[in-house]
Amino acid sequence: MPVSNAGRLARRWLYLVHRWVGIASCLFFAMWFGSGLVMLYVPYPSLSPTETLARAEAIDWSAVTVPPPLDGGRLPQDVLLEMRDGVPVWRSQGWDDGLHTVSASKGRHLAPVDAAYVVRVASRFGRARVLNVERIMRDQWTVSGGFDRHRPLWKATLEDEGGTNLYVSSSTGGIVQSTNRTERFWNWLGSVPHWLYPTVLRQDNAAWRQVVMWVSGPCIAAALAGIWIGILRARIGPRRFKGGRMTPYRGWMLWHHVAGLVGGGFLIAWIFSGWLSVDPWHLFQSAEPDARAVRAYAAAGVMPAVPLDRLRHVGAGAVRARITDYAATPLVVLEYPDGRRRILDAATLVPSQPKPNAIVAAARVLVAGTSPVAIDRLTEPDAYWYDPGGLPPLPMLRLRFDDPAATWLYIDPATGDVMARIDRRRRAYRWAFDLLHNWDLTILTRHRPAWDLLIWLFSLVGMVTSVSGIWVGWKRLRRG
């Protein structure tokens, strides 16, 4: 059947887009596939809660003489007791202002966060001598907005085998980031290129977000054009090319055609989900929970006096003590270097935890006063409460509501702490981004190397498509 002029013009533009945009996009694809494989084994540096607890100082209970800072007998947003440079301190997060740190020992003042302080804290935490200390606003490993409240930062370089750098907050005096030489090397080949994450760009979040969208967009167009051309140029039925071949190409173009057809769907899913990672047009943005409702759930009544004299004996060896009042159940949560927790009634210091029906009743205020339509106690991960690196904290209480946003709450049954709030939009994002980009189904991530093999297989197909496209494009440019 003859092709119309409009059809010929459309096909010509299809080839032009794929050819010229594809030359640049294949460079990005090769970089993304290669760096993604690195990220499977060396993630972006972060200081895990486990490492923080393992390296923390045990609370000097004999020096704790100041009761927790309360607001007229009511609990602030967060209150915890820990050590700061040899002095026990109360850290509290107010409902309407920032983080406060006060001495928990009468007559003992807090040392300023200066170079001498950083040397003491970093050497104690890293268990090595400090070679150098410098004051910085940000660098490649502290560029994200999560560090903003700690800026300026103090960077301490340790004299150890790993080439460790520790970062100390100027506001709290705590260690907030840790990197080593191996992590830094591999992340220059992994996370930094994969996320388009150089400091000069990432320090401006709006600009970085626009770059990700405008780089990913043309790559999606080139990939879609390539798949369509690949289908047009393939003959699968009885009418084939010479020698019964399904493709007219040979050499590098043959590799590019076949790999593109085999892995094209995966490539599109990967680049499209990567584009969604910055949430264009805020499609997956959830409404913030009502602040008054959160306060009503987390600080419902007047806190009882915590008996510090008895807590000194009960809390021996603990490195952190949190005071909570979730679901109108005042508790002291003691945390230890090995990750253990002891959860005690705040007034009597006997083991305690909120009653499930108290959590359910109190949680109604968090979701516009509605009651949950389903209550589940999870002992295994579900599709939204999971950890690709292992198991998330379990057991977990899952409350599902039928409010307009279809909210789900994941609540720690031992403390009443709301660990996650996921509405319909965030559940859609889990499938549109997390699944299509990471393929992190629990059935795969809990049975490694099955997950690794899947990612490697699709990544290698993508690399063949990308590298062959680069070579073909380079030859075309040289001819031109």
Give the structure's gist in a few sentences:
By secondary structure, the chain is α+β, with helices and mostly antiparallel strands. It contains 14 helices and 14 strands.
Structure characterization notes:
The structure is a single chain. The protein is about 40% helix and about 15% strand. The chain is built from 14 helices and 14 strands. The chain has helices spanning about 5-40, 50-55, 115-125, 180-190, 190-195, 200, 205-230, 250-275, 290-300, 310-315, 355-365, 425-440, 440-445, 450-480; strands spanning about 80-85, 85-95, 100-105, 130-135, 155-160, 165-170, 175-180, 320-325, 330-335, 340-345, 375-380, 395-400, 410, 420. The strands form 3 sheets. Strands 3-2-1-8-9-10 form a 6-stranded antiparallel sheet, with no helix packed on it. It has a 4-stranded antiparallel sheet with strand order 4-5-6-7. Helix 1 crosses helix 14 (about 450-480) and helix 7 runs antiparallel to helix 8 (about 250-275). The chain starts with a helix and ends with a helix. The model has no long low-confidence stretch (mean pLDDT about 95).
Question: What distinguishing features does this structure have?
Answer:
alpha+beta; 14 strands
Secondary-structure element string: HHEEEHEEEEHHHHHHHEEEHEEEEHHH
The amount of helix comes to 40-55%
Radius of gyration: 28 Å
Count the E strands. 14
Distance between the termini: 33 Å
Which band does the percent of strand residues land in?
Answer: 15-25%
Give the overall shape, derived from the CA principal axes: elongated
Largest sheet: 6 strands, antiparallel
Q: If helices are DSSP runs of H or I spanning 4 or more residues, what is the number of helices?
A: 14
Mean pLDDT: 93
- In spatial order, strands of the major sheet run 3-2-1-8-9-10
- The parts where pLDDT drops under 50 for at least 5 residues are none
Structural class: alpha+beta
